[in-house]
Structures are given as C-alpha cells and as structure tokens.
Amino acid sequence: xxxxxxxxxxxxxxxxxxxxxxxxxxxxxxxxxxxxxxxxxxxxxxxxxxxxxxxxxxxxxxxxxxxxxxxxxxxxxxxxxxxxxxxxxxxxxxxxxxxxxxxxxxxxxxxxxxxxxxxxxxxxxxxxxxxxxxxxxxxxxxxxxxxxxxxxxx
Length: 154
Prior knowledge:
The protein is of the alpha+beta class. It has helices at residues 64-70, 86-98, 114-122, 138-141; strands at residues 16-18, 21-29, 40-47, 52-59, 73-77, 105-109, 126-132, 146-152. It has a single domain (4-152), classed as Aminopeptidase (3-Layer(aba) Sandwich), CATH 3.40.630.30. It has a five-stranded antiparallel beta sheet. It has a three-stranded antiparallel beta sheet with strand order 6-8-7, sandwiched between helices.
C-alpha cells in the first residue's frame, strides 16, 4: 500500500450537509511526510444564506502527529458564530465521507478549549486520554503543550 501522501484520494461528495450547515470543498492539501503531515481535505462551513461561519479539515493518514496531536478532524468557527452548534453539525455533515476511510477517527483539543470539548462530547466521542504534545510537533511550537484525545465513530 502507498503511503498516505502518495495515495490518489477521491473527490468529496458535492453535497455534504447536516442541520443548518453545508460544507463547501476548498481543496486538498498535500501531505508533507518529512513532518508527518498527511493530506487534508479542506472545507468551508457555510449556512444556506452563504454566510461563511468557519472551516473543517479532514486529514487522511495515521502518523504519530495525527494520532497523538492533530487528530483526523479539525475545525474552527468564526467568533460571531460560536456557541450555535455549527462545529458539531459540520462533523456530522462530513461523517459519511469519513466512513469511506475509517471506522473510527481521532479528534483532539486543548484541555482548556471548553467549547471544542463540548462539541466532541456532543458527538458521542469516547475520551481516550490527555497527553503532552511532543516538543518537535508543530502544535507545541504554536503554544499547545497538552492534548485531550477522543475516538469518534462517525
């Protein structure tokens, strides 16, 4: 089997939606094996009126960076739209596509990111552990020194 950075990844479905959100595919970012970065699908999270409320990334690969620090799914909601469940809905929208690759994925957050923790817990993800971020990891270099790890079956 080819390493994840050399896989020919399929195009995502044209229509990914759940609740109030629609995921709009922005592109596929190639992996960078020397830094354990895997290919990632990037989506904008938008509402029916085309308002951009945030982003979601789905990373395909199982490096230590993904499994221990970054997770397979990452998201961010723009400040004025936080607290409305859009991140959870975006994860639910991407779930059918994620299942084409994985039975279960890792989602992480910083321990003090209570909003992200609530999102992950509302998804029904199982808490695995909290662990230190390796010094050489890009997340550590950006100031994130611990991660809570969850296993989600989309």
